[in-house]
Each structure stands twice: as C-alpha cells, then as structure tokens.
Amino acid sequence: MNIAVITGASSGMGKEFTTRLITENDARIGAPYDEIWIIARSEDKLISLQKALSPERIRVIPLDLTLPESLSSLEELLSEKKPNIRLLINCAGMGRSGAFAEQSKEETHAAIALNCDALSSLTNICLPYMTGHEGPKGRSATIINIASSAGFLPQPDFAVYAATKSYVISFSRAIAEELNGKGISVTSVCPGPVDTDFIKASKNDPNATFTGIKGKFVTSVDKLIPASLKAAKKGKKMLVFGTSQKALHVASKILPTSWILFFEK
C-alpha cells in the first residue's frame, strides 16, 4: 500500500497539500496513493476534510505530536499496516510573536517540541517505510519539510520560531546528504509570510494580519503548494519561494545581520 503522510493537515498549508494531492491525483509527484494519512490535533477538522475530499482514500489520525505517546501510537500503526510511504510532508508548526521575555516557558517548549522534536521524530519513525520501493525517477520516497525564510536570520519578536526554522533548514539539508543515493529526496520549503491563519494564532488575535514590510510580501497558498510539489518532484534540496525571500536569502549570506535586521523593522 502506497501512502502519503501529512502533518498539520487540519488547516493552512497542510490542508492545502491534502487537497492538491487528492484533486490533482498526485500528478506532480508520481503514482497515485492508496491512502493519504492526515495528522493534526483536531479530529473534527480532519474528519470534515476527509468527508469533503475522499472518505475512501483519506485516513484520519488525530494526534498531538508534542506528546511522546502520540508518536508511539503512530509507530504502532505503521508497524501494523507496513505501508510504503512515498511522501512525507512535515507541515505541523507553531510560533508565538512578541518579546521572548513575555512568553511563557510552556509556549517556548511547545514550539520547540512541535517544530523540531516532532518533525525529527516523525521523520525517524517514517524512514524505515520509505526505502526499498523504487518509484518515479528511481526515487522510493520524498520528504517535504516546511521551514521558513525566518530561519535565515535571527528574528526579534519571533525569536523561538525563527530559531526552530533554522533547525528545520539545517536538519533537512543534513539528512538530504545522508539519504543521497538511497532513493529518498528531502526538500525544505522556505516561504515568507503566507496567507493562512498562522499570524492570528501567533498573536492570539483573530483579527491579526502581517504588517510593515512583511505585509507587503504575503504569499498565497494557491501558489506556494504547487511550487513546493514541483520542487520536490525535481529533487531540489531547498525551495526559497518568492523574489523578496530569495533576495533575503542571498543578503543573509553576504551582509552583516545587524544591517538586515535594521531594514526589516
């Protein structure tokens, strides 16, 4: 049984990835999947998505990935079903904006647990089911990790989130090299601000929007998701999405960090 696994699937980019894979019959990556396993905390939202798209092909797995028992539960399910994981999309993520000193240790721990620990552990759990089944272009499987251009530089008032995304970029590049020649490609996706509810959750404000220079470069999920799947199909190690984010990526390598942070204010 060939499957795709998508975390953070109840909303935002994870939900859009799920929708694309079902409605486009996975034309961008390769052969269709027998099932798409969608993971998030909200069972109600996952069931709603399943009913709207494909009750037969979508398996709902409600889990809080910050909890060790959730990862153990998924590990047991994989051991029982023994699927061929052709695509893993690590979309689940969170962040809190504002000064670090004003955030609780629980919020900090939760962000690191989800953005770093869960992503790493889930990848580790899935890897044994991603080898030995050659797919398109000699590849047995593809991993897409959602990072962020915030990971290129320190981000005052978004310190923990930016640091976790730096981790995702570094981790993705490292395992891409480890898996090179083994039929598994790893792509980290680095967009700027995206038009999801993330900013509302990060500010704990249902009316929050991106402001300042970030508000001028908000990316549409309708453009980001197809580009991400296309980059993964090509086996690209990193997708920096958008002209402004590409410029930031280059600038982060050649200009003093203090200069860039000044102009980002």
Give keywords.
single chain, about 260 residues, alpha/beta, Rossmann fold, 10 helices, 7 strands, about 15% strand
Task: Enumerate the spans where pLDDT stays under 50 for 5 or more consecutive residues.
Answer: none
Structural class: alpha/beta
State the end-to-end CA separation.
50 Å
Helix content: 40-55%
Instruction: Look at the structure and name the CATH superfamily.
Output: NAD(P)-binding Rossmann-like Domain
Explain what you see.
The protein has one domain: Rossmann fold, CATH 3.40.50.720. By secondary structure, it is an alpha/beta fold. 46% of the residues lie in helices and 15% in strands. The protein contains ten helices and seven strands. α1 crosses α8 (221-233) and α3 (68-81) packs parallel to α4. The mean pLDDT is 86. The chain has a seven-stranded parallel β-sheet with strand order 3-2-1-4-5-6-7, with helices on both faces. The radius of gyration is 18 Å and the shape is globular.
Short note summarizing the structure:
The chain is α/β, with parallel strands linked by helices and 265 residues long. It is 46% helix and 15% strand.
List the helices and strands and how they pair.
Blueprint: E1 2-7, H1 12-23, E2 35-40, H2 43-53, E3 58-62, H3 68-81, E4 84-90, H4 105-126, E5 141-146, H5 159-179, E6 184-190, H6 198-203, H7 212-215, H8 221-233, E7 238-240, H9 243-254, H10 257-264
Parallel strand pairs: 1-2, 1-4, 2-3, 4-5, 5-6, 6-7
